[in-house]
Amino acid sequence: MVLKIDNSSLDSEQGKSQNEDASLLELKKLDNKKEIESQPLEVSKGNDNENGFRDFGFNQSILNSLTNKGYKNPTPIQKAAIPELMLGRDLLGQAQTGTGKTAAFALPLIEKLADNNELNAKVLVMTPTRELATQVAESFKSYSSESSNFKTVAIYGGTDYRNQISALKRKVDVVVGTPGRIMDHIRQGTFKIKDINCLVLDEADEMLNMGFLEDIEWIIDQLPENKQMVLFSATMPSEIRNIAKKYLNDPAEISIKSVKKETQLISQKFLYVQRHHKLDALKRILELNNEGVIIFVRTKLLTTSIAEALENSGHTVAVLNGDIPQNQRENTVDRLKKGFINILVATDVAARGLDVERIKLVVNYDFPFDKETYTHRIGRTGRAGRSGEAILFVNQREKHFLRNLENSTRTKIEEINIPSNKTINEKRMEKLIENVNESSLAKDENEALIIDVVDNLKENYSMDDSNIAMAAINLVIGNKSFFVNEDDSWIHKQNNTDRNRSNRNSNNRMRNSNRRTNYQNDSFETYKFNFGKFDGVRVANIISSICNSTNINGRSIGKIQIFNDYSLVDLPRDLHRETKNKLKKIKVRN
Ligand code: AMP
Predict the structure, then answer these.
(1) Beta bridge partners of 154
(2) To pair with 7 at 20 to 30 A between CA atoms, which of 109, 159, 437, 552?
(3) How high is the pLDDT of residue 237?
(4) Among 257, 273, 294, which residue terminates a domain?
(5) What is the pLDDT of residue 508?
(6) Bigger pLDDT: 258 or 300?
């Protein structure tokens, strides 16, 4: 049954017509379950008299902090979740980052704790990664910035215990953390949990993927029995449903489809490039757009080598990978936000949940492992209602995965070419003209000085206006060559031959010979399996067993060697614990 909502408590969006609201909020109401379509977020900076959050009954301090943040109207997930959470109900929400889900649970919890003066924490939020923990804690802090005496503490691994312990000793309302560190503090008695009356599991599917299920269950068992439970997850596999069934009490269910937001706001493109030309292609892409870029690569080693190469080409770059200490990571994200760094080269795990509004471009330098990884990656742009661009590098073998990706995300990814010298030179020219024009419009504190210099040149060197302009532009350009003139014939060949060859070879793509040559060894680890030639095993059997039993894609499997009674298989480094467990149990040909 499809119901249109005419409930005034949900219909709180100001400044829009009833009809518009009704169509946006067309909900499928199945028992408890609501399915909602996401839409771009609206941010209006500055003071706004109308505040669509007023109808929730929030106190003035929260409304003031929302006005400061420029939030005008609640997002669909906020409209649906906030009233339920204010009533104290449990909630099961399917939503990805970018939908406004953090405020959906943070705001009602802050409201409920408005007069809390007790020492021990009342709310615990669990997140899969330190980055997300920091971000969620930052969101709590900013939404409560106008509320006096509200304290949020983040506890996560990779940083010193001492600061966390002393923060937990003082008054605290909300603790946000990652499972491992939360367990440590509970065990050591440094995190007092006896007053926790609400637990939020954020990105629960990701926590499961990272093998945290046992830890989460252990933590839940330690917490007081009577508590509100909120579970947010981007996907709803059966494991998450089981957790919900086990721990949530008659939850309100909300599901938000955020794919629409991505297809609306992020323009998704791909280009064909052979592996040995990837770095050149990347540099050419950055010629057209180099302010606010994230480049996703598969290994830590690649993050540093690419960052170095880009730095040598004059870009401001930083890396984000699992080896970078936590405080340095925070510092990097902060510098990216402030514009001191323009380009970030990152691995998937390190950049999960990253929320930096100025990211305009995401480059998938290495093909993502799966659809979810792709969606998370490109979701780093198009934040808070802005538009963004995502470019996927595809080699000949990956064409077939590109089609799979298009099918599973139900998105057409548009093909583009690697920028040629001509395109780059036109762009450089355009930028130069733009810079000179902007500089002439700007009122400068040096204006008097500039006039003096011009007068001096005219008087003492007999230069006219046009001579002076030309000399000044020459000075801006400097003495290196302005236009790119290196051989770019490889680009043309690349686009054509690669495509043709990839058509011809489409049936042979999974052949082991390709597999041997197309990957860098440092991306792999060798696994030994106790089946071999004597068991009648062939390469194709091994690939299909691995792909069917785990979430590893065929294209991510490296070299396969079959011996008499065992086989060696190269698989990506840093597999999740859960995937490794599944690998232990795989069967080939039964
Ligand atoms: P989240 O899904 O919680 O990661 O939020 C995504 C982004 O949307 C963050 O940058 C938030 O600051 C922003 N945001 C959340 N709610 C709103 C709102 N009602 N209006 C405008 N921006 C919002």
Answers:
(1) 176
(2) 109
(3) 85
(4) 257
(5) 36
(6) 300
pTM over 0.85: no
Same domain, 442 and 366: no
Q: How many domains does the chain have?
A: 3
Is the separation of the CB atoms in 174 and 109 below 8 Å? yes
Q: If you take atom 15 of ligand 1, which residue's CA is the nearest one?
A: 100
pLDDT at 517 over 60: no
Q: Has residue 563 been placed in a domain?
A: no
Tens of pLDDT, residue by residue over 399-442, are: 888 988 888 777 889 999 999 999 999 999 998 888 888 777 66
CA 149 to chain centre: 32
Ligand 1 center–CA 103 separation, angstroms: 7
Of 257, 282, 300, the residue at which a domain comes to its end is: 257
Q: Is residue 175 part of a domain?
A: yes
Closest CA to 8 of 28, 22, 26: 22
431 shares a domain with 397: no
φ and ψ at 2, to 5 degrees?
Answer: -105, 120
More confidently predicted of 90 and 351: 90
Please tell me whether residues 46 and 137 are part of one structural domain.
yes
CA of 197 from ligand 1 middle (Å) equals 25
Handedness of CA 10, 11, 12, 13 (dihedral sign): positive
Comparing CA positions, the residue from 399, 413, 414 lying closest to residue 367 is 399
Q: Which of 352, 386, 417, 445 is nearest to 97 (CA)?
A: 352
Check pocket membership of 181 for ligand 1, CB cut-off 6 A: no
Most confident of 194-198, 434-438, 578-582: 194-198
Higher model confidence: residue 581 or residue 492? 581
Work out the end-to-end distance of the chain between its first and last CA atoms, rounded to an integer number of angstroms.
45
Task: Report yes or no on 538 lying in a domain.
Answer: no
Tell me which residue has tokens 């068992």: 221
Does the C-beta of 98 come closer than 6 Å to ligand 1?
Answer: yes
Name the amino acid, one letter, at 447: E
> Are both 130 and 230 inside the same structural domain?
yes
Nearest residue to 177 (alpha-carbon basis) of 138, 128, 113: 128
Ligand 1 mean position, distance from CA 354 (Å):
13
Domain assignment of residue 352, yes or no: yes
Condensed to tens digits (0 to 9), the pLDDT of residues 94-119 reads 987 778 999 999 999 999 999 899 99
Distance, CA of 233 to CA of 92 (rounded, Å): 8
**Rounded CA gap, 454 and 451, in Å?**
5
Residues in CB range of 432: below 8 A, 6 or more apart: 473, 476, 477, 482
C-beta 135 within 6 A of ligand 1: no
| 242 and 108 fall within a common domain | yes
In this prediction, residues 532-539 reach a mean pLDDT of 81
298 and 317 assigned to the same domain? yes
- Please give the residue that has the higher pLDDT: either 210 or 321: 321
Task: Examine the domain organization and report whether 66 and 210 are in the same domain.
Answer: yes
The domain of 433 spans: 422-477
**Tokens coding 536:** 């009648």
Q: Are residues 147 and 205 in the same domain?
A: yes
Handedness of CA 29, 32, 35, 40 (dihedral sign): positive
